[in-house]
Design goal:
Number of domains of chain A: 1
Number of strands of chain A: 4
Structural class of chain B: alpha+beta
Helix content of chain B: 25-40%
Strand content of chain B: 25-35%
Strand content of chain A: 25-35%
CATH architecture of chain A: 2-Layer Sandwich
Largest sheet of chain B: 10 strands, mixed
Strand order of the largest sheet of chain A: 1-2-4-3
Shape of chain A: elongated
Helix content of chain A: 25-40%
Order of helices and strands of chain A: HEEHHEEH
Number of strands of chain B: 20
Shape of chain B: elongated
Largest interface: A-B, 36 and 41 residues
Radius of gyration of chain A: 13 Å
Largest sheet of chain A: 4 strands, antiparallel
Distance between the termini of chain B: 32 Å
Number of domains of chain B: 2
Oligomer: heterodimer
CATH class of chain A: Alpha Beta
Radius of gyration of chain B: 26 Å
Chain lengths: ~100, ~450
């Protein structure tokens, strides 16, 4: 087991419009993608992000060795309760997951 | 004959490599297309109808693009003028364009494409069932509509084509999808529709699809079967990986991109190396929708805000800062009710602890031992006067509030005088809806003027 940040090449998160955030996990090989894919089912990531699992979309993109997650923002971008206007810090939360 | 679109950068104001732009002009584009904004800068710009970027920087880059346009003898199109794409932002770009045309001695035919939606029109569309929610959609009852200051519809390829068809040298478009300014001409010339949208998505951020994003400039050559994207910066490369990966960027679905009039599906796309460090792409499909619908964006006034920032350095207070913050807030709410007669729902106070969890809030897992904690207080009320008054009431308590009742009053660090900053009006995004149109030009307005002198 190791923290996700030590296993993959890069994790980024960003707004996908004002109402969604998307997370891209870039792996260096099909083996790493398989390991990450197996370790990060929707339920686990949704729990970590305190989301209803039905709101978390998950995409496996083998041609790019990427695992992608998208979810509606808890607060729309830039609204009173939003603490991170561009949604880029969410990626840091996933970095620490053990895979 | 392919149709070549030169994209100088991801957005006007971000900068580009002038040598790469010159190389692009030598290659011979059919059109130059650049983006002028997005929602990514936040709701304030749409709320106020203003630009996030410096006027001087935009003006300087626009001068270079007007000169490049004149050298190439092709149209120059900018979408989402002035960050938010409201009429005021389109007119802001028009003013800059007119000034530069005179300075450069150019005579320019300038088409302005307005995409504002009046609130009354939005209400009529809602009542007629032409407004459909996307997920998640804010409420659109009368109260919600009344608070909106600006609403824009995102123009697609059809409206940009209409603007180009006026014979304009320069097109200044209101809010536009990231892709439409790039896709419009290839589509009008009968290039492969899937390729036109796919190539436009890949190049919408300029050189973000290359190995060196800061170089800015890329050329996309569209034809009847696909497109080829080529970097214009010296030593910059596109790779199948860098190109394909851009489909993921700021897109919640890696295979599908919704546009006015249909959607792009790249599930079957293939990416292969091409000449001049470019990448050749084929296989994307355009699926025409039965109805023509455009996406809407709206901003609503959320109130008026005052911010205060204090710094806590005393280790005893740092260790107990969350409890201290809860106590302070409770105390202040009591004072606000007693002194100002305001109930809790008449204003909003939020306290964020910088150094503890200010970026992630309840999601933060990592608890460190900060040397100091920044206490950011955000007060939002129905008027600036009310927010400022609440801040004035809180001021001495933010400076001196003790952890327990029976101890000497502490004095925290105020990093500036005054410690409060009135932030003025603040806004929220208030629409995530699509609007059905009978004709793509319904509600959009075109105006053509000649500026400068020859």
């Amino acid at each position: 087991m190791a923290e996700l940040r030590h296993v993959v090449r890069r994790i980024r998160s960003k707004n996908a419009g004002p109402f969604w955030i998307t997370i891209d996990i870039f792996c260096d090989s099909t083996d790493v993608l398989a390991r990450v894919t197996a370790a990060l089912p929707v339920e686990r990531v949704a729990g970590h992000l305190q989301l209803d699992a039905s709101h978390l979309k998950r995409f496996e993109i083998p041609t790019l060795n990427v695992l992608k997650f998208s979810f509606p923002r808890p607060h729309p971008q830039g609204s009173l309760r939003d603490r991170d206007m561009h949604g880029a810090q969410v990626a840091l939360l996933l970095e620490l997951l053990e895979v | 004959m392919p149709t070549r679109v030169l994209i100088p950068s991801g957005v006007l104001g971000l900068g580009f490599d002038p040598d790469a732009l010159a190389r692009g002009i030598e290659v011979g584009p059919d059109i130059i297309a650049i983006d002028g904004g997005s929602t990514d800068s936040g709701p304030f710009y749409l709320g106020t109808g203003t630009s996030k970027y410096s006027r001087a920087v935009c003006r300087d880059e626009w001068r270079q693009l007007l000169e490049a346009r004149a050298a190439a003898g092709v149209p120059l199109v900018i979408g989402s003028c002035g960050t938010c794409g409201t009429a005021s932002a389109v007119d802001w770009m028009f003013e800059i364009t007119a000034e530069l045309a005179t300075e450069l001695g150019q005579t320019l035919r300038v088409a302005r494409l307005y995409s504002d939606v009046p609130i009354d029109e939005l209400r009529r569309a809602r009542d007629a069932g032409r407004l459909s929610p996307l997920d998640p959609a804010p409420p659109i009852d009368d109260a919600a509509l009344a608070g909106m200051t600006n609403i824009v519809a995102l123009t697609g390829a059809e409206q940009i084509q209409a603007a180009i068809d006026t014979g304009a040298d320069v097109v200044l478009a209101g809010r536009t999808t990231d892709t439409a300014t790039i896709a419009a001409l290839p589509l009008a010339r009968g290039m492969h529709a899937g390729a036109a949208w796919h190539g436009a998505k890949i190049a919408e951020c300029g050189a973000f699809c290359t190995t060196r994003p800061a170089s800015g400039v890329v050329m996309v050559s569209f034809d009847e079967t696909g497109f080829t994207v080529t970097p214009m910066g010296d030593g910059v490369r596109c790779t199948p990986q860098s190109v394909a990966a851009h489909m993921l960027y700021e897109n919640s679905d890696p295979w599908i991109l919704h546009e006015p009039g249909g959607h792009l599906d790249v599930t079957s796309a293939s990416y292969v190396k091409a000449a001049d460090d470019g990448v050749r792409v084929e296989g994307a499909a355009w699926m025409t929708a039965p109805d023509y619908r455009v996406k809407l964006e709206g901003a609503r006034l959320a109130g008026y805000q005052t911010m205060m920032l204090a710094v806590i350095r005393d280790p005893r207070y740092v260790d107990a800062v969350s409890d201290w913050a809860d106590r302070l807030l409770t105390h202040c709410r009591e004072l606000i009710a007693a002194s100002l007669g305001l109930s809790d729902d008449a204003y909003d106070i939020e306290l964020r602890l910088i150094g503890v969890d200010s970026a992630l809030g309840g999601l933060e897992r990592h608890r460190g031992s900060p040397v100091e904690v920044g206490v950011m207080l955000l007060i939002t009320a129905a008027s600036q006067a009310a927010a400022s008054e609440i801040a004035a009431l809180i001021n001495p308590h933010l400076l001196h509030y003790p952890l327990t009742d029976d101890e000497p009053m502490p004095t925290f660090a105020f990093p500036m005088s005054p410690v409060h900053s009135d932030r003025g009006a603040v806004y929220e995004f208030a629409l995530n809806h699509v609007l059905g149109l009978n004709d793509p030009m319904d509600g959009f307005r075109l105006r053509v003027d000649e500026v400068g002198h020859g």
